[in-house]
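Attaching the record inline, Q. Sequence:
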Amino acid sequence: MFQHIVELQREIYAAFASQITAFANGGGWSAFLLYLPMGILFGAAHALTPGHSKTILATYLAGSPLGLLRGLTVSLALSFTHVTMSVLIALLSLPLVSLSLGSVGRAPMLEDVSRGLLGLIGLWMLFRAFRQHSYSHDHGEGIAVGVMAGLIPCPLTLFIMTFAISRGVPEAGVAFAVTMMLGVALTLSIVAAAAILFRQRMVHLIETRAALLDRITRTIEGIAGIALTAVAIRELLVR
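Structure, as predicted:
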Protein backbone atom coordinates (compact mmCIF):
# COMPACT_ATOMS: atom_id res chain seq x y z
CA MET A 1 0.00 0.00 0.00
CA PHE A 2 2.71 2.47 1.03
CA GLN A 3 4.76 1.60 -2.09
CA HIS A 4 1.76 2.43 -4.27
CA ILE A 5 1.44 5.79 -2.51
CA VAL A 6 5.14 6.48 -3.12
CA GLU A 7 4.75 5.66 -6.81
CA LEU A 8 1.68 7.89 -7.00
CA GLN A 9 3.69 10.65 -5.34
CA ARG A 10 6.32 10.43 -8.06
CA GLU A 11 3.66 10.59 -10.75
CA ILE A 12 2.17 13.65 -9.06
CA TYR A 13 5.52 15.46 -9.06
CA ALA A 14 6.08 14.61 -12.72
CA ALA A 15 2.56 15.65 -13.73
CA PHE A 16 2.77 19.00 -11.96
CA ALA A 17 6.20 19.70 -13.43
CA SER A 18 4.95 18.89 -16.92
CA GLN A 19 1.89 21.14 -16.65
CA ILE A 20 3.83 24.05 -15.18
CA THR A 21 6.50 23.72 -17.89
CA ALA A 22 3.82 23.72 -20.59
CA PHE A 23 2.20 26.80 -19.06
CA ALA A 24 5.54 28.58 -18.83
CA ASN A 25 6.23 27.82 -22.50
CA GLY A 26 3.10 29.66 -23.56
CA GLY A 27 0.46 26.99 -23.12
CA GLY A 28 -2.01 29.53 -21.77
CA TRP A 29 -4.65 29.33 -19.06
CA SER A 30 -7.22 27.31 -21.00
CA ALA A 31 -5.43 23.95 -20.96
CA PHE A 32 -3.97 24.72 -17.52
CA LEU A 33 -7.37 25.39 -15.95
CA LEU A 34 -8.75 22.14 -17.38
CA TYR A 35 -6.00 20.24 -15.59
CA LEU A 36 -6.12 22.27 -12.39
CA PRO A 37 -8.91 20.23 -10.65
CA MET A 38 -6.51 17.28 -10.64
CA GLY A 39 -4.74 19.17 -7.88
CA ILE A 40 -7.57 18.22 -5.52
CA LEU A 41 -7.01 14.52 -6.19
CA PHE A 42 -3.26 14.92 -5.91
CA GLY A 43 -3.58 16.85 -2.65
CA ALA A 44 -5.88 14.20 -1.16
CA ALA A 45 -3.52 11.39 -2.18
CA HIS A 46 -0.46 13.31 -0.98
CA ALA A 47 -2.06 13.81 2.46
CA LEU A 48 -2.11 10.02 2.88
CA THR A 49 1.68 10.02 3.09
CA PRO A 50 3.51 10.58 6.41
CA GLY A 51 4.10 14.13 7.58
CA HIS A 52 0.61 15.62 7.56
CA SER A 53 -0.16 15.40 11.30
CA LYS A 54 -3.00 12.91 10.83
CA THR A 55 -2.08 11.07 14.04
CA ILE A 56 -1.86 14.31 16.00
CA LEU A 57 -5.21 15.48 14.63
CA ALA A 58 -6.97 12.21 15.43
CA THR A 59 -5.39 11.98 18.89
CA TYR A 60 -6.39 15.49 19.85
CA LEU A 61 -9.97 15.16 18.61
CA ALA A 62 -10.37 11.79 20.30
CA GLY A 63 -9.45 13.39 23.62
CA SER A 64 -11.47 16.61 23.25
CA PRO A 65 -15.25 17.15 23.41
CA LEU A 66 -15.39 19.10 20.15
CA GLY A 67 -18.33 18.24 17.93
CA LEU A 68 -18.14 17.26 14.29
CA LEU A 69 -18.43 20.78 12.86
CA ARG A 70 -15.79 22.26 15.16
CA GLY A 71 -13.55 19.25 14.67
CA LEU A 72 -13.71 19.75 10.93
CA THR A 73 -12.74 23.39 11.50
CA VAL A 74 -9.59 22.15 13.23
CA SER A 75 -8.73 19.99 10.22
CA LEU A 76 -9.32 22.94 7.88
CA ALA A 77 -7.04 25.15 9.99
CA LEU A 78 -4.35 22.47 9.82
CA SER A 79 -4.72 22.10 6.04
CA PHE A 80 -4.69 25.86 5.40
CA THR A 81 -1.62 26.46 7.56
CA HIS A 82 0.23 23.42 6.18
CA VAL A 83 -0.08 24.55 2.55
CA THR A 84 0.12 28.30 3.16
CA MET A 85 3.44 28.00 5.00
CA SER A 86 5.03 26.52 1.87
CA VAL A 87 3.54 29.20 -0.36
CA LEU A 88 4.84 31.97 1.91
CA ILE A 89 8.29 30.41 2.19
CA ALA A 90 8.56 30.17 -1.58
CA LEU A 91 7.13 33.61 -2.38
CA LEU A 92 8.76 35.66 0.36
CA SER A 93 12.06 33.94 0.93
CA LEU A 94 12.90 31.72 -2.02
CA PRO A 95 16.63 32.58 -1.86
CA LEU A 96 16.69 31.25 1.70
CA VAL A 97 15.08 27.92 0.86
CA SER A 98 18.31 26.16 -0.01
CA LEU A 99 20.02 27.68 3.04
CA SER A 100 17.37 27.34 5.75
CA LEU A 101 15.76 24.03 4.78
CA GLY A 102 17.59 20.89 5.75
CA SER A 103 16.29 19.13 2.63
CA VAL A 104 13.64 19.69 -0.01
CA GLY A 105 10.27 20.02 1.66
CA ARG A 106 11.59 20.31 5.21
CA ALA A 107 12.04 23.27 7.52
CA PRO A 108 13.71 22.01 10.71
CA MET A 109 13.15 25.18 12.73
CA LEU A 110 9.43 25.29 11.92
CA GLU A 111 9.17 21.57 12.67
CA ASP A 112 10.76 22.08 16.09
CA VAL A 113 8.44 24.99 16.86
CA SER A 114 5.42 22.95 15.81
CA ARG A 115 6.39 19.95 17.92
CA GLY A 116 7.30 22.07 20.91
CA LEU A 117 3.93 23.84 20.85
CA LEU A 118 2.09 20.54 20.43
CA GLY A 119 4.02 19.20 23.41
CA LEU A 120 2.72 22.10 25.48
CA ILE A 121 -0.82 21.33 24.35
CA GLY A 122 -0.27 17.73 25.43
CA LEU A 123 0.93 18.80 28.87
CA TRP A 124 -2.09 21.11 29.21
CA MET A 125 -4.42 18.23 28.39
CA LEU A 126 -2.67 16.11 31.02
CA PHE A 127 -3.07 18.90 33.57
CA ARG A 128 -6.80 19.13 32.90
CA ALA A 129 -7.23 15.37 32.98
CA PHE A 130 -5.84 15.09 36.51
CA ARG A 131 -7.55 18.16 37.95
CA GLN A 132 -10.65 17.58 40.04
CA HIS A 133 -12.54 20.49 38.50
CA SER A 134 -13.83 20.24 34.97
CA TYR A 135 -12.67 22.72 32.36
CA SER A 136 -14.51 23.82 29.28
CA HIS A 137 -12.68 23.32 26.00
CA ASP A 138 -12.41 26.57 24.12
CA HIS A 139 -12.93 26.18 20.38
CA GLY A 140 -9.98 28.52 19.96
CA GLU A 141 -7.77 25.84 21.48
CA GLY A 142 -8.73 23.46 18.70
CA ILE A 143 -7.91 26.05 16.04
CA ALA A 144 -4.57 26.66 17.77
CA VAL A 145 -3.79 22.94 17.65
CA GLY A 146 -4.59 22.89 13.93
CA VAL A 147 -2.34 25.88 13.25
CA MET A 148 0.51 24.47 15.36
CA ALA A 149 0.33 21.07 13.68
CA GLY A 150 0.26 22.75 10.27
CA LEU A 151 3.38 24.87 10.78
CA ILE A 152 5.45 22.17 9.09
CA PRO A 153 5.42 23.19 5.40
CA CYS A 154 3.93 20.86 2.78
CA PRO A 155 6.81 19.36 0.74
CA LEU A 156 4.69 18.92 -2.41
CA THR A 157 3.52 22.55 -2.31
CA LEU A 158 7.05 23.76 -1.70
CA PHE A 159 8.30 21.77 -4.69
CA ILE A 160 5.56 23.10 -6.94
CA MET A 161 6.04 26.70 -5.83
CA THR A 162 9.82 26.65 -6.26
CA PHE A 163 9.47 24.90 -9.63
CA ALA A 164 6.87 27.41 -10.82
CA ILE A 165 8.90 30.41 -9.63
CA SER A 166 12.02 29.03 -11.29
CA ARG A 167 10.04 28.89 -14.56
CA GLY A 168 8.81 32.45 -14.07
CA VAL A 169 5.15 31.53 -13.48
CA PRO A 170 4.52 31.78 -9.71
CA GLU A 171 0.80 32.25 -10.40
CA ALA A 172 0.68 28.66 -11.68
CA GLY A 173 2.19 27.41 -8.44
CA VAL A 174 -0.30 29.38 -6.34
CA ALA A 175 -3.20 28.05 -8.41
CA PHE A 176 -2.07 24.48 -7.88
CA ALA A 177 -1.48 25.16 -4.17
CA VAL A 178 -5.09 26.29 -3.71
CA THR A 179 -6.51 23.16 -5.33
CA MET A 180 -4.11 20.91 -3.42
CA MET A 181 -5.17 22.53 -0.17
CA LEU A 182 -8.73 21.43 -0.92
CA GLY A 183 -7.50 17.87 -1.42
CA VAL A 184 -5.43 17.88 1.75
CA ALA A 185 -8.40 19.29 3.66
CA LEU A 186 -10.60 16.50 2.29
CA THR A 187 -8.31 13.75 3.59
CA LEU A 188 -7.72 15.41 6.96
CA SER A 189 -11.43 16.09 7.37
CA ILE A 190 -12.16 12.39 6.90
CA VAL A 191 -9.59 11.60 9.59
CA ALA A 192 -11.14 14.20 11.91
CA ALA A 193 -14.67 12.96 11.31
CA ALA A 194 -13.65 9.34 11.96
CA ALA A 195 -11.97 10.26 15.26
CA ILE A 196 -14.92 12.33 16.46
CA LEU A 197 -17.57 9.78 15.45
CA PHE A 198 -15.62 7.02 17.18
CA ARG A 199 -15.40 9.06 20.39
CA GLN A 200 -19.08 9.97 20.24
CA ARG A 201 -20.01 6.35 19.71
CA MET A 202 -17.99 5.28 22.74
CA VAL A 203 -19.53 8.04 24.86
CA HIS A 204 -23.02 7.06 23.74
CA LEU A 205 -22.44 3.51 24.93
CA ILE A 206 -21.71 4.64 28.48
CA GLU A 207 -23.62 7.93 28.75
CA THR A 208 -26.07 6.43 31.28
CA ARG A 209 -23.26 6.19 33.81
CA ALA A 210 -22.20 9.75 34.59
CA ALA A 211 -19.37 8.92 37.00
CA LEU A 212 -17.92 6.30 34.68
CA LEU A 213 -18.26 8.68 31.74
CA ASP A 214 -16.35 11.37 33.63
CA ARG A 215 -13.53 8.95 34.50
CA ILE A 216 -13.33 7.65 30.94
CA THR A 217 -13.36 11.17 29.51
CA ARG A 218 -10.50 12.16 31.80
CA THR A 219 -8.64 8.99 30.92
CA ILE A 220 -9.01 9.58 27.19
CA GLU A 221 -7.86 13.18 27.55
CA GLY A 222 -4.92 12.04 29.66
CA ILE A 223 -3.91 9.44 27.08
CA ALA A 224 -4.22 12.02 24.32
CA GLY A 225 -2.07 14.43 26.33
CA ILE A 226 0.59 11.77 26.91
CA ALA A 227 0.56 10.83 23.23
CA LEU A 228 0.94 14.43 22.04
CA THR A 229 3.73 15.09 24.54
CA ALA A 230 5.52 11.84 23.64
CA VAL A 231 5.31 12.54 19.91
CA ALA A 232 6.66 16.06 20.40
CA ILE A 233 9.57 14.87 22.58
CA ARG A 234 10.44 11.99 20.28
CA GLU A 235 10.43 14.14 17.15
CA LEU A 236 12.54 16.81 18.85
CA LEU A 237 15.14 14.29 20.02
CA VAL A 238 15.18 11.90 17.05
CA ARG A 239 15.98 13.47 13.66
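Residues 131 and 218 are 9 Å apart (CA to CA). The two ends are 25 Å apart (CA to CA).

More tomorrow.
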